[in-house]
Design goal:
Oligomer: heterodimer
Shape of chain B: flat
Number of domains of chain B: 1
CATH superfamily of chain B: MetI-like
Strand content of chain B: under 5%
CATH topology of chain B: MetI-like fold
Helix content of chain A: 25-40%
Distance between the termini of chain A: 36 Å
Largest interface: A-B, 32 and 23 residues
Number of helices of chain B: 10
Number of helices of chain A: 9
Helix content of chain B: over 70%
Strand content of chain A: 15-25%
Largest sheet of chain B: none
Structural class of chain A: alpha/beta
Shape of chain A: globular
CATH class of chain B: Mainly Alpha
Structural class of chain B: mainly alpha
């Protein structure tokens, strides 16, 4: 589904992604973990080209990711993205947030988009808030709406960029529950997260990054019990308490 | 209502304590007395110089006087609104050019913005009144005042709109892009509507300046409030009373505009729309 080959990215002189090779198969859930500043969010954002790359290749379903224009927009519409800061459209109601892209991009009718949106909002448990504005919802509710908004485009793969990092502790689980359901339904997912228990439960593979490099790709069982690198072991040790 | 909203006032000023409250009260009382004294002094001077004489005021009892002034007021409002709309359209075009990222467009629009912001309105008025006709551009007096006022406002409008666009969090744009919207749609559907809401108070303030600039209508002989006031003055030889009344009317218009801006800003915060 996603293939990343020899990807390199610089911010000026700073080499943020170094020779990244990674692929995500259809239906697979890949979790990327690592210390902050390791480049995991940047990597996630290169997949739908919110970050440009300096060398290497990104293939989506075997096709190279377009660099701009309508082709890029078309690919993006098939890649859902959930952000750390939710990024719901502040001037639109919850319902409008979910119906906007299906109407504007997929040219669905308002009625059809609304019906689908209500179904999705119900699925993530915020259908009763449909007519409110984002700021009137809790962070956990906003993030669940953001997931529904992505799902409304019927994406083939979903990217999660630290989806629970901006949430109060008591709201983290309500978002993780929705994500777990998605994973169980067979959605292809690439998740950057600090939630180790969640990673253990849902992931098919764990990717460990440090200093712009992938140091280890492993099954969750192996990674969390006997990590293959010292750096990963130190990292897991440091976040235990 | 929402803890996340902190006004500038909360950031810059501490809640006054008992001592400061006393001092504020004292200063307020003193300045009130001073203002009343000044006002009394002014009325006294009017009395001494004979400005309160009935011959300067009697015509305000005539309906025709008010009708004439009202026609002027309508002229002012027409010019101000048309200029305002034109300035908004021109400002929007200049702003999109300036943020387009295309080198030539950025340079041209930045130059035009700086030019229109830098040139005094009166110079634009003279251009359309004196220079343009020499090149065969003959306009009605309405456009001779409306176009220069709009031109001199459009650069400021462009910059106000741009500040609004810059204030929209970049996550809004990223979210829209990630849903597959093309840049133009992202701007028109997501970024600009929010930017516009941010800058409505600033735009209304600019409209106050537009209203004041319309008084240059006397240069081109367009019958606005100021021009009609001048006619009354020459008819009745009553400069002070008429100008005083005209000033009051302008103050009311602009006060209402400023109030609308403040109300909108407060209203938005209350409804937590943004």
């Amino acid at each position: 589904m996603i293939e990343i080959k020899k990807l390199n990215k610089y911010y000026g002189d700073h080499h943020v992604l170094k020779d990244i090779d990674l692929s995500v198969d259809k239906g697979e859930v890949v979790v990327i973990i690592g210390p902050s500043g390791s480049g995991k969010s940047t990597l996630c954002r290169t997949v739908n080209r919110l970050e440009t790359i300096d060398s290497g290749e990104i293939l989506i379903e075997g096709e190279p990711l377009p660099e701009d224009g309508k082709d890029l927009a078309a690919i993006r519409s098939k890649i859902g993205m959930v952000f750390q800061s939710f990024n719901l459209f502040a001037h639109k109601t919850i319902l409008e947030n979910v119906t906007l892209a299906p109407v504007e991009v997929l040219h669905k009718s308002h009625a059809e988009a609304k019906e689908e949106a209500m179904r999705l909002l119900k699925r993530v448990g915020v259908d009763s808030q449909a007519d409110k504005y984002p700021i009137q919802l809790s962070g956990g509710q906003q993030q669940r709406v953001a997931i529904a908004r992505s799902l409304a485009m019927n994406p083939k793969v979903m990217l999660f960029d630290e989806p629970t990092s901006a949430l109060d502790p008591e709201m983290i689980n309500e978002v993780l529950d929705v994500m777990t359901e998605l994973a169980d339904d067979g959605m292809t997912m690439m998740i950057v997260t600090h939630e180790m228990n969640f990673a253990k439960q849902v992931s098919d593979r764990v990717v460990f990054m440090d200093d712009g490099r992938i140091l280890e790709i492993n099954t969750p069982e192996k990674f969390f019990s006997e990590p293959g690198t010292d750096r990963a072991r130190d990292f897991l040790e440091s976040i235990k308490n | 209502m929402n803890a996340g909203h902190v006004s500038i006032k909360d950031v810059l000023y501490e809640e006054p304590g008992p001592k400061l409250k006393k001092r504020i009260k004292a200063v307020t009382a003193m300045s009130t007395v001073l203002i009343i004294l000044l006002f009394a002094l002014m009325v006294h001077r009017f009395y001494i110089t004979g400005q309160l004489d009935g011959k300067y005021w009697f015509f305000f009892g005539r309906l025709s006087t008010w009708r004439f002034l009202f026609r002027g007021l309508i002229g002012t409002v027409e010019v101000a609104l048309t200029s305002g709309v034109l300035a908004f359209i021109l400002g929007f075009i200049l702003m999109t050019g300036r943020i387009s990222g295309k080198k030539a467009a950025v340079k041209i629009c930045t130059a035009l913005i700086e030019f229109t912001r830098g040139v005094p309105t009166l110079l634009f008025v003279y251009f359309f009144f004196l220079v343009a006709p020499q090149f065969g551009l003959k306009l009605a007096s309405f456009w001779k005042i409306t176009l220069p006022v709009a031109l001199s406002a459009c650069g400021v409008v462009a910059e106000v709109l741009r500040s609004g666009v810059n204030a929209v969090p970049k996550g809004q744009r990223e979210a829209a892009l990630s849903l597959g919207m093309v840049e133009r749609k992202v701007f028109l559907k997501i970024v600009f509507p929010q930017a516009f809401r941010y800058v409505i108070p600033a735009l209304l303030s600019e409209l106050v300046i537009v209203v004041k600039d319309t008084t240059f209508a006397y240069v081109v002989n367009f019958p606005d409030l100021m021009q009609n006031a001048s006619v009354l003055i020459s008819n009745y030889d009553a400069m002070l009373s008429v100008y005083l009344l005209a000033a009051v009317i302008y103050i009311i218009i602009n006060y209402l505009l400023n109030k609308a801006a403040a109300y909108y800003a407060g209203h938005r915060k209350e409804r937590s729309l943004l």
